[in-house]
Amino acid sequence: RTTMKSLRFISAEAFVSNAELARKSLGAVAHDLFPLLFKASYLLEQGEVIHDLIENWPLFDFNMGKLLGATLDYQEDLSHRTCSVCLESCLTGLRDYVLNQSSPYMKKLRVVDLTGIKDVEVQLCKCKKTMGRWARTQLLSKLCSELLVYLQKAECNPGTFEISIKVLIDLFVTERNYELVVQALLKKCSCPLKICCVALRSDNLTLQKFFYIIKLTDPSLLRKLEIVHNVHLEMEHLEMLLNSIHFPLLMSLTLPARTFNVRRFTATDEQMLTNIGEKIGEMTQLTELSMSFSILTGRIQKLLSPLKTPLKMLDVSNCSLNHADMAFLANRFHANHLEALDLSGHDIPELYPSTFFKLLSHCSSVLRSLTLEDCNIQDTHVNMLILGLSPCQKLQEFKFIGNPLSSQALKYLFTFLCELPMLKNVEFPVPRDCYPTGITYPIDDASLCRFDHQKYERVAEELNLILLQANREDMKASTPLFGSYDAAVQETNNELGAYLIKSFKETLEKFTTSFNKMS
């Protein structure tokens, strides 16, 4: 699919394609053409031109998402291209904007917004090398620190110290880049480039470091907070966090696995949970909440009822919810507004079929994403599922891997899914009849890949043929055995893998020491 380009955009491409000539001629370019030239340079991956455009940026703001998004001159959205050449040129150009003392333009730049960049699985840039969120955090922090060192050593124009540019960014902090980010945030007042953290993802950090970094980011500006995987935050730490820090603008909160475990609850824990619910209720902007892999049986109402605004996104996958929890969720207050819902890991047909379909009917007019992985949905439940999904005409994404469905049932279901006009992404399970007879669900990791791959390929072809015959080439169907693509996990998997090996080794050493003492 080719996107139409205006004559202006074609001219801009021709201009920036000769990097040497374009760089020499920038001084004669009208200010209002800089955004057009920037998008054309980004499309052609002209790193040197991008650098010089930003080094001499003549406007008050630089909003990456808007500049790369759909424009009248070129409709294609380039904000999902996290091209390493382009992004590095942007950030070094920003540093040199501060240092450039001979720029022909008056320095007007006040706000740089880098939050519109989207990390996706398939990159269309020619260099094929991406710069993810973690690497952007690392590079910006490094450039801020280097800039300060240079300004302290060099004889700079006094005007340089008066430059103050807010750089809005989604930070991603792990053990490996922690020190660098801390230094950049600590010296924010003295640095002309002032990091403003709008979203924070923290992984592989000790609790002490997590609490320190979150205070440095200025929580009053945070809109999104993701505490994931190897940050061992439990309920008492969460209470401490919410008691000591106020998040007035927070719209999205992700908590790590095992934050809650009601099976071990005492009376004190019940009070703690009530306090946490009240604190969450004070977050008047909160519309997205993820609490997967916690044990929350019978406590959803206690946690969510204090909320003053309804949730648009809720992930309670593998949270051992009971009928009372599902009944509360089916209540119209939240259900009528839910655009994304993840109920994976619950035996929906067995435990609460009618309540689930009540929930689905209430959110059907707005629901965009539904995830029902490992929910024990079998062939006998497909008609009921189709009935529940029929009103969900705005559904764009449906994920249901890990369910014991036969190839025949999948074909029947796919014929129906073609009728959902906005559905674009489907993640379906390996058919039950591709596995050896007697396989039990949920399938353990060791058995996950032990299926008839040739038979699976044949079934997948038949399913794609159903889409083709229904003129639904716009729908993508896949079976990601080990879960959907996660850009953040992909980028830091080496560090996380090393951490897991280290943890396993330490546990083994402790066990050996204890065993030797017993001997």
From TrEMBL:
Keywords: Leucine-rich repeat, Repeat. It comes from the Eukaryota. InterPro entries: LRR_dom_sf, LRRC14/PRAME. GO terms for cellular component: cytoplasm. The keyword DNA-binding does not apply. Belongs to the PRAME family. LRRC14 subfamily. This is Leucine-rich repeat-containing protein 14B. It comes from Acrocephalus arundinaceus. The gene is Lrrc14b.
